Amino acid sequence: MFDPTTYxxxxxxxxxxxxxxxxxxxxxxxxxxxxxxxxxxxxxxxPRPALDAASGRPVVNTIxxxxxxxxxxxxxxxxxxxxxxxxxDKLPLVLVWESNHDGAPADYLRQVLARATSGEPGVHxxxxxxxxxxxxxxxxxxxxxxxxxxxxxxxxxxxxxSGYRGVPxxxxxxxxxxxxxxxxxLDEHRADLAGQDPVAVHRRIRDHLRAGPPGLEPGDLExxxxxxxxxxxxxxxxxxxxxxxxxLLLTFLLPFTLAWYVTLRRHERRDKPxxxxxxxxxxxxxxxxxxxxxxxxxxHLVDLKPGVFRYVTQRVVLFAIDQLARVIFVHGELGGITSxxxxxxxxxxxxxxxxAHRRRHRLLFFSNYDFSWDSYLGxxxxxxxxxxxxxWSNTEGYPRTENLVNxxxxxxxxxxQWARDRQLASQVxxxxxxxxxxxxxxxxxxxxxxxxxDLDDEDAPGWLVRL
Length: 467
Description:
This protein has about 475 residues and is α+β, with helices and mostly antiparallel strands.
């Protein structure tokens, strides 16, 4: 039977308010800095540990080693403050842990708990040292209560995208090992294979790998699950539902659609975009940790424009993007952007006991992407400006828009300055595929799938090109 969870990598976003204790928060920042310094060497591919700036001694991270998390693609820890809030009405600090992982969140957290409390030497997943500064946090020693607390503080992703949806982390790693083993075989037997036809080369490679050469692990040749009939049924059902919804809006709900459009245009005429005030490379704390490996990360925070109208419009836009990401953008590209490993939008609701007009809901965006910040933002502008504008035109300071999707991001320089100005520095960030782009991962997975069947004269040449 079709299991939809098979085709959906998960996005866990745990957000918890920090205690109003400057000393406790300072201690937390210090711990996160130790983890950061340790991973900085790891993320740069350095064989030696990072050095402490004050003592010159190696940084010893016995707090949190993300590589020990089960079935995790990417993860980060970030303290979300309120840099643009009014001085007399600041929102409390929030600690956010986001993880791109396999399996249901509850099962994932239980695996994390089991690993962290196993007593196994060298395992460092001390969430108590990290979340201990959060209001009401229970120790990991309390088992199920810890899992329940983490789930209670998990925010639903309004929209979530994966560049290789449905491919578990273990299959990503295995496919990379298989591709490396094939390269080694080709290097050793290039002269012998040069005169053979593609079908014969494919057969020789497959026979070699089935013999279990060094570098492979049991099960590495098992291909990722192909999308079955259930997936395609869900895809077309989603498209039909979206089409019906659009038809209803344009016909039976036409008066409401017109009223929404008139209200939107009134809001857009009143909007006050930010003025560009500084260069996009004027933030050294962000730039210092970029371009160390193949990927980079973006943590972006911005206030939603006030009022129910903008809030509802934002939710509807993100719902549509989420549905498209589930059934249309499942081939390694989101609206033409091919560099995104994982991305999600979550809303940080202002739950303070204050009048509704004083509440400030915020949109938090996480992305793990290939190559530089400039190329990534440039891709957004060149290939997905309308979708980009539909999302962020409902947030404060965004470049002036028209009809929800027009203008906005097409003002590239202003958009980049707006995006950089609201970017947060993540205290901890880790990549589980440091040397692979989205294209590399999907290509490796396709290579392994091709090893699982006999290829003919038509298919074998295309498979060899992937090598």
